[in-house]
Design brief:
The protein contains 19 helices and six strands. α4 runs antiparallel to α6. With about 475 residues, it is mainly alpha-helical.
Length: about 475
C-alpha cells in the first residue's frame, strides 16, 4: 500500500464528513423534527417556562407552533450547512463560509430546545464545520510536515487539529470503558458475539474471564490512538483503527447486536476517516506559497481562535465527567454503560394513560400478561421508547431522564401512583451505584433543583376548548 497524495486530502475529508452527516441527520430525523410523542428537554433550566403559561391558552398555542417552526428551520440550516461542508472546495469562499456556519448555528439552537440533540456525531461535525469555515485554503500543500503538531495558525493546518480531535475521541472513549460496568455488561455482550467464530472449547465460560477479555476492546482503542500520534507508527495505527471499526460494524450490525443505522454510519465514517486523515502522504510538487505582507485584521485573528477553543474544550472537559460536571456523550463515553439513569414503574392499570407509542412497547414486551390492577407494577421502558420513537438511544443523564418521567407524570391524564428510581453513575472499580426512590411529584420537582442544567420538559399545554 503506497502513500496517498496529500493534495485534496482535506477536501476529501470534508466531503466524507458532509455526506455522512447528511446520512446521520436522515436516519435520526425524528429527533430533530416536530410531531413526536417523546418529550423535548431544554438545555437551560428556565427554558421550559416559555411553554407553561397557565392563563393564556392562545399564547400556548402560538408558542407550540413557533417551536415546531423553529425546529424545521434549524433542521434545514443543518442540512444546508452539511451540504456546504461536503462541497466546500467547489463553492466560492465567502458563500461557503456563510453556508457551512449554518450547521453550528442550527445545532446549537436545536440543543437549546432539546438537549437530546447533543449527539456525539453532531458535536464532532460542529468542530469540523468551524475548522472548515476558518481554514485559509480548501486544500493543503504537500510541503506541510505530516506531523501531529498544534500549529499556531489553525487556518493553514486544519487537518492537524482534526487529527488531534479524533485521537482525543479515541482516548476518552477508551478511558470511559476501562471500568467494571463495561467489562461485565456491554463488553461481555460484544465478546460473546466475537467468540461465535471460535469453537466452544476455546471460548471462556467463566464470566470473570469474559469480563477480562472485554477490556481488550478499550485497550485496542487506546493502542490505535497512541499509534496515530507519531508519524513513524501512523501506518500501523491506521490499520489498527480500520480493523477496530470493521470489527465493530460486525459486532453492532444486524448480524450482531442489531444497533441502529446511525451507529453503523458513525463507525463506517471513522473507518474511512482513519485513512483520509492519518495515512502518510507522498511528496508532491506544489507552487511556492505567496508571501502576503498584509496582516490579518484583529477580528479575523480572533475568529480564527474559535475552533481551537472549541476543540481544546472538547478535549479537556471530559476530565470532569466522572464527577458529574460534564455530560457522558460530550465526554465521548461511547458504548460505556456507567452513566447515571432513571427507571419509572407504574401500576399496570395505569398503562392506558401513557402515550400510544409507549403503550405499544409495554404490551409487546409482555404480550401474555393479563394482570391489570393497582397492585401489579410494570416498568416503563424509557430507553426503549427513545430507540423506537427517535431511532437514537435515550440521553444518558439522570437529569434528562427525570424530565422525561415528569413529562409522563404531568400529562392531562397521568398515572396516579408511580415509583421513580434515580441511579448514580457506576463506580469505576466495582460498578456499585447509589440509588434513591421518589414517590411524589413534589420529590421529583425538588430533585430537579439539584441539577445545573434543564431537568424539566418542554411541553406546550393544549389549547383550551371552553
Amino acid at each position: 500500500m503506497t502513500a496517498a497524495p496529500y493534495i485534496n486530502r482535506w477536501a476529501l475529508y470534508q466531503l466524507l464528513c458532509g455526506i455522512s452527516g447528511l446520512c446521520l441527520l436522515g436516519t435520526t430525523a425524528k429527533l430533530w423534527l416536530p410531531g413526536k410523542d417523546f418529550p423535548d428537554i431544554p438545555l437551560l433550566p428556565f427554558a421550559h417556562l416559555v411553554t407553561h403559561s397557565e392563563s393564556f391558552a392562545t399564547l400556548d398555542y402560538v408558542t407550540a407552533n413557533s417551536v415546531a417552526f423553529a425546529k424545521l428551520a434549524f433542521f434545514a440550516m443543518m442540512v444546508v450547512g452539511l451540504i456546504a461542508l461536503a462541497l466546500y472546495c467547489w463553492i466560492k469562499k465567502p458563500i461557503a463560509v456563510f453556508l457551512v456556519m449554518l450547521y453550528p448555528v442550527g445545532l446549537l439552537a436545536s440543543v437549546l430546545l432539546n438537549q437530546h440533540c447533543l449527539q456525539p456525531w453532531a458535536i464532532l461535525l460542529l468542530a469540523l464545520c468551524l475548522l472548515a469555515s476558518l481554514s485559509s485554503t480548501p486544500t493543503l500543500s504537500a510541503n506541510s510536515q505530516d506531523t501531529l503538531q498544534a500549529t499556531n495558525d489553525i487556518r493553514k493546518h486544519p487537518i492537524s487539529w482534526a487529527r488531534g480531535l479524533v485521537i482525543g475521541i479515541y482516548l476518552w472513549s477508551a478511558f470511559s470503558k476501562l471500568d467494571a460496568q463495561f467489562a461485565y455488561t456491554v463488553g461481555t455482550q460484544m465478546m460473546q458475539i466475537l467468540f461465535r467464530v471460535l469453537p466452544n472449547s476455546l471460548v471462556p465460560q467463566d464470566p470473570h474471564w469474559l469480563a477480562c477479555s472485554a477490556l481488550c476492546l478499550p485497550l485496542g482503542e487506546f493502542l490505535a490512538a497512541m499509534l496515530l500520534v507519531f508519524p513513524r507508527t501512523r501506518r500501523l495505527g491506521v490499520i489498527v483503527a480500520i480493523a477496530m471499526h470493521g470489527t465493530l460494524l460486525g459486532v453492532l450490525g444486524p448480524w450482531g447486536l442489531h444497533h441502529k443505522a446511525a451507529v453503523l454510519i458513525w463507525n463506517a465514517t471513522f473507518l474511512c476517516q482513519a485513512y483520509l486523515l492519518f495515512w502518510p502522504t507522498s511528496p508532491a510538487k506544489t507552487p511556492p506559497a505567496k508571501n502576503s505582507q498584509s496582516a490579518a485584521s484583529p477580528i479575523r485573528r480572533l475568529t480564527a481562535k474559535i475552533p481551537a477553543v472549541v476543540i481544546v474544550t472538547m478535549m479537556v472537559m471530559p476530565l470532569f465527567e466522572r464527577w458529574g460536571y460534564w455530560d457522558h456523550w460530550p465526554s465521548w463515553a461511547l458504548y460505556a454503560p456507567h452513566s447515571s439513569r432513571v427507571s419509572l414503574a407504574i401500576p399496570s392499570d395505569s398503562v392506558d394513560q401513557l402515550p400510544s407509542s409507549l403503550r405499544a412497547i409495554i404490551r409487546a414486551q409482555s404480550p401474555h400478561s393479563d394482570t391489570v390492577d393497582e397492585t401489579h407494577w410494570v416498568d416503563v421502558p424509557l430507553a426503549q421508547w427513545s430507540l423506537q420513537s427517535l431511532e437514537v438511544p435515550i440521553y444518558p443523564q439522570s437529569r434528562f431522564q427525570v424530565a422525561v418521567a415528569i413529562s409522563l407524570l404531568t400529562s392531562p391524564d397521568p398515572p396516579r401512583n408511580f415509583r421513580v428510581t434515580v441511579t448514580s453513575a457506576a463506580n469505576r472499580w466495582n460498578g456499585i451505584r447509589s440509588t434513591r426512590t421518589l414517590y411524589s411529584l413534589d420529590e421529583l420537582f425538588a430533585t430537579t433543583q439539584h441539577y445545573w442544567l434543564g431537568a424539566l420538559p418542554l411541553k406546550p399545554s393544549p389549547i383550551a376548548t371552553d
